[in-house]
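Reviewers asked in the last cycle whether our approach scales beyond single polypeptides. To address this, we selected a multi-component target totalling 540 residues and predicted its structure end to end. The input consisted of the following lines:
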Amino acid sequence: MSATTEQPKTTGEQEITTTEKPVTINTKSLEEDDEFEDFPVDQWPASSTLKESKEFHTNLWEESWDDVEVDDNFTSGLREEIAKYKQEHQ
Amino acid sequence: MANEDFTMNEMKSIVDFGDYFRDKYSDDSLVRYFQYHLRKESTTLYMLNNEFQDDKIKQVFELNQRIWSNITTFHSVPERGKKMALQYHKELFDMIDEQLLLMNRIAERESRWILYPLFVLARELVMLVKELRKHLSFNLTTYVERCGRSVHRSFTLCLNDRNPNKLENRRSGVYLFINLEFKIYHKLNNRDMIKNLVKVVKSRQEDRFEPLMSCHESLCSIYNSQEVTYNYYMGQYYGCIENNYEKAFEYLNLAYLGCNDGYKSQLNKILILLIPFGLLSHRKLVHQGLLSKLYGGKKLKSNVNQDNIYENDERMLGQLYKEIIKCCRTGNIVRYDNLVTITKSNQIFFLRNGLYVSMQLLRELVLLRYVEIIYQLNEKMTIIPLEMIYIAKFYGQKKKVTITTEAINELECELACLISKKMIKGYLSHGNKCMVVSKTDPFPNLKIVK
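The resulting structure, written as structure tokens, was:
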């Protein structure tokens, strides 16, 4: 155990999104176990790095988000709400 | 030989340990000699020529025999009690530490050839700290600190080598030990020591007379796992400690490109930092296809064991990060707040990975995107009522949203921040409760947001 285990430990499910129920948190995950692990080997050929992999490298970043056209539920919701607001305030 | 079960049927090659020091070279057998974590002795038979007169080398050799003998004896016992395991690991730590100190003394008079085997031995000690933790019921700090002191000696004997012969100079091994030090300081949770370490290295790299070579030009260029590790730790330092996302992005991008996609656990750790730092420094969005390719294929369990860092990381990257990127694109500030500042398990994840501050800064960019979309949808009118900005996100709610003065003030404050950071060109009118934006380019495309 490390010195950082002062908080009470609880176990339970972890939720990716909010739920109505309170989510129990496992504070053990704040301990030092969460580190950058050693690689099992120290060498691999330069040809097998992601830099050389066409599949991953060219695919890493999309255009910056200022250029991204968006149209989803959220935007259409906003559009309706703005129209409503304008109507009310004219 | 330490292994008494050794049978003559096994073909063993014989190596004289002293020869390495006489001929000044290292090979896989020497490296294997120190790889205690593999638990199984090497098939090579090591011996020490009696004519070789050197006390320290002899001591290293004898310690090695004792260590292997302990390992084989311990693992041959079918039922090992807690007490026995603890005793065994403590003894093992003492012996390997002693061996490392001896090897440090030897390395002081040796050249570059000894660095990799020395590193492998030092790494064994660091690995053992992790093992010890499973068995120790009390504070581990004393052991981590001892380990840190021994590794630091290896580090300084590299850093301070003044050998003018560049091929023999030990400075090229310095980055190997920096990685171990990073690891130890993380275990100690000591940010000041990390800062100091980076400061020392930086000042040596900038030395006017004898600048220290970069990691890429050092011995790490042969051991690429160590180059990736160094770049990761540096990226983590700049992003999580210094909030310098530009630099953090540079290092982590190098770490990503140098990595091999077979090492998922390490790749996860790199991406966990790289994705938000890419957004914060260059407003770059990671390709959704990449995340799908890496994490979308397999079915993610809904109840992952949180103690299993690997599973948890995979799930966070595959689900949480995908959602966050979507929020960044669409400006969905409500969803972002839900994910980042309300869901506790996600908060824990960000805290654990040193991303708490970064995620708060990222919120600003999501808000900016949100305001930008409102502006677009409002037919690019230069006057935007604060109420409209506030109320729009509550679309679809049956109950009428009550607008409190506090809520409007809070929004006004957030917008003032965006304006002061030059992310919005415009001004606020408190009396008229509205924001007036510039006719030309009200949302300048900010490359770097600090």
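Helices of chain A lie at 54-57, 73-88. We regard this as preliminary and will revisit it once experimental data from Aim 1 are available.
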